[in-house]
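stage 2 :: seqdesign
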C-alpha cells in the first residue's frame, strides 16, 4: 500500500486539502505557477482587507472549537477516523508557518522539528494520537505566534502582478484562510462524533429561519438545456480543481427545488429501502450488509420514535430538514428507489450558477454578491440545516433553493480535472485524488465558512463516508 493510498483510506472531510509539508512550498515555480492565472480585477488593498478578515474569522472559529472543551477532550481521539483536536490546532499553525512565513516571507523555520508530526500525508489519522504532539497550551502558543507574524507579513506583501505566484491576488493568504476553515469543519465533525457532554449547544444557537409560503414551494424545477460556463478563471482564491472556466453543454433536466428531507428519506426506510438489494450499487449493498445499516448515521428508533444525536443532544428527527450524514451509496439508493437519479456535477453547477437572461455564470445562485445570513446557512451559525424551502433570497435563476449552505450535496460525478487543468501549488493538492475512487460534493453545508464555499467550489470524498455533513437532491431527465 502506497503512502498516498494509505492516507486516502483514512480520509474524512477535507484531508486531501491539508497542505502537506511533504511537498516543498518554496518550489512553486515553472509551468504550474505560470499556468495558474489570477484575473480577479480586485485591487490589492481590497484583497488585503479580505485576507485579513478571513484569517481573523477563521482563528475566532478555531478558538471556539478548541476552547469549548478541556485538555483531556482536546488530546483524546474521539474516532479512529478523526485526529485529536489538538493535532488539528497545531497543524493549522504549521501549515500557516510553512506557506506564509517560509514560502511567501522567506523566513527561517520556527519549529522545523514538528513538520513531520503534522504532515497529513505521512501520518494517517488513526496513528496521530501516538505521536509526540504539542500539548494544548504549547499548540495554542505556537499557532498564535505564527499568526502574529503572518499578519505582519500581510501588511506589506505585494498582492499585485509584481508579486510571486503565491502572493498575486493574495492567493496564499486566501488559501491558508480556507485551509483553516476546512479544518474547523473537520473539528466540528469531531465534536459531532464525541461521546462526551455537549460543548457547542449551550447556550443554544439561534434557530435557522423557517420557510415562508411553504405550500407554494415547487417540488422540482426545470433547468433548460444548452451550454453554460463551468468553473472559474477569475475568482482570486479559487483552488486549482475549480479552474479554468470552460464551456459545458447540458441537456434539459428536472432538479429537486430543495435537498431531500428527513421525512422523505424516512419513507425510503419504511419501505425497506435498506433491505432491498435492487436499489443499491454492489459496493453499497456490501456496506449495508457488513455494517448492518438501517438509517442515516446518528439516527435511532426508540419507543416508536425516530431520534438523532446532534452535538451531544438527542432530539426527534426533524422531518422538514434536509437529511444529513448519509453516504453517496445511500443517496444513490434513495434516488433509484424514488425513480430518479443524482445530478451530475455539471447539472448541479448549471442549476446553481447559470443565468439564462444574461447567459452568464454567477458567483453564487443569487448573483455575484457575497453570502449573507438572509441568503444562506453557513459558518456554523445555527449548528443545523434550515428547513427545506428556507432562504428564498438565495434561490438561483432556475428556482432551486439552498444550493449554498445547509448540506453538502452528493453528485453522480467522479472527481476529475477540468479541461486545461493546471496543478497549483503542487500536483498533490488535487491531482492525486482524480479518478473513480472519489465522488464530488457541491454547495457547502451549515458547517462551512463562506471563504471556502462558492458556486465553483468542489469537495470530494469516498462514497462510504457518512460522518461528513452531507445530504443530496435528486434529478430526472426532462
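stage 2 :: out
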Amino acid at each position: 500500500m502506497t503512502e498516498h493510498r494509505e492516507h486516502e483510506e483514512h480520509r474524512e472531510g477535507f484531508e486531501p486539502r491539508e497542505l502537506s509539508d511533504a511537498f516543498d512550498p518554496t518550489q512553486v515555480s515553472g509551468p504550474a505557477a505560470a499556468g495558474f492565472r489570477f484575473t480577479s480585477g480586485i485591487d490589492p488593498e481590497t484583497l488585503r482587507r479580505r485576507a485579513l478578515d478571513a484569517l481573523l474569522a477563521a482563528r475566532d472559529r478555531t478558538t471556539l472549537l478548541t476552547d469549548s472543551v478541556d485538555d483531556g477532550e482536546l488530546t483524546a481521539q474521539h474516532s479512529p477516523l478523526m485526529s485529536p483536536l489538538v493535532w488539528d490546532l497545531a497543524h493549522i499553525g504549521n501549515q500557516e508557518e510553512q506557506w506564509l512565513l517560509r514560502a511567501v516571507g522567506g523566513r527561517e523555520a520556527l519549529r522545523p522539528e514538528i513538520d513531520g508530526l503534522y504532515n497529513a500525508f505521512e501520518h494517517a489519522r488513526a496513528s496521530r494520537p501516538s505521536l509526540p504532539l504539542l500539548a494544548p497550551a504549547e499548540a495554542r502558543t505556537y499557532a498564535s505566534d505564527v499568526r502574529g507574524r503572518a499578519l505582519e507579513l500581510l501588511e506589506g506583501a505585494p498582492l499585485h502582478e509584481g508579486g510571486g505566484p503565491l502572493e498575486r491576488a493574495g492567493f496564499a493568504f486566501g488559501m491558508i484562510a480556507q485551509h483553516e476553515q476546512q479544518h474547523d469543519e473537520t473539528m466540528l465533525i469531531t465534536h459531532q462524533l464525541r461521546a462526551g457532554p455537549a460543548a457547542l449547544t449551550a447556550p443554544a444557537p439561534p434557530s435557522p429561519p423557517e420557510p415562508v409560503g411553504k405550500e407554494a414551494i415547487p417540488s422540482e424545477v426545470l433547468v433548460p438545456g444548452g451550454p453554460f460556463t463551468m468553473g472559474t478563471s477569475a475568482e482570486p482564491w479559487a483552488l486549482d480543481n475549480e479552474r479554468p472556466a470552460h464551456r459545458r453543454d447540458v441537456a434539459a433536466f428536472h432538479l429537486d427545488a430543495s435537498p431531500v428531507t428527513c421525512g422523505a428519506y424516512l419513507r425510503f426506510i419504511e419501505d425497506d429501502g435498506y433491505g432491498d438489494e435492487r436499489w443499491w450499487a454492489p459496493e453499497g449493498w456490501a456496506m449495508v450488509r457488513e455494517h448492518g445499516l438501517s438509517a442515516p448515521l446518528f439516527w435511532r428508533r426508540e419507543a416508536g420514535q425516530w431520534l438523532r444525536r446532534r452535538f451531544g443532544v438527542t432530539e426527534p428527527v426533524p422531518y422538514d430538514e434536509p437529511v444529513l450524514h448519509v453516504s453517496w451509496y445511500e443517496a444513490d439508493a434513495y434516488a433509484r428507489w424514488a425513480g430518479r437519479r443524482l445530478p451530475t456535477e455539471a447539472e448541479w453547477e448549471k442549476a446553481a450558477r447559470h443565468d439564462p437572461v444574461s447567459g452568464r455564470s454567477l458567483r453564487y445562485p443569487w448573483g455575484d454578491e457575497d453570502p449573507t445570513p438572509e441568503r444562506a446557512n453557513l459558518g456554523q451559525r445555527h449548528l443545523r440545516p434550515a428547513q427545506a424551502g428556507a432562504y428564498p433570497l438565495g434561490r438561483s435563476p432556475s428556482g432551486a433553493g439552498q444550493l449554498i449552505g445547509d448540506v453538502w450535496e452528493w453528485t453522480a460525478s467522479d472527481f476529475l480535472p477540468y479541461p486545461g487543468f493546471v496543478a497549483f501549488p503542487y500536483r498533490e493538492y488535487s491531482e492525486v485524488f482524480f479518478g473513480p475512487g472519489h465522488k464530488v460534493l457541491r454547495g457547502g453545508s451549515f458547517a462551512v465558512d463562506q471563504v471556502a464555499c462558492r458556486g465553483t467550489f468542489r469537495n470530494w470524498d469516498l462514497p462510504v463516508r457518512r460522518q461528513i455533513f452531507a445530504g443530496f437532491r435528486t434529478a430526472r431527465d426532462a
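stage 3 :: structure notes
- The chain has eleven helices and twelve strands.
- The mean pLDDT is 90.
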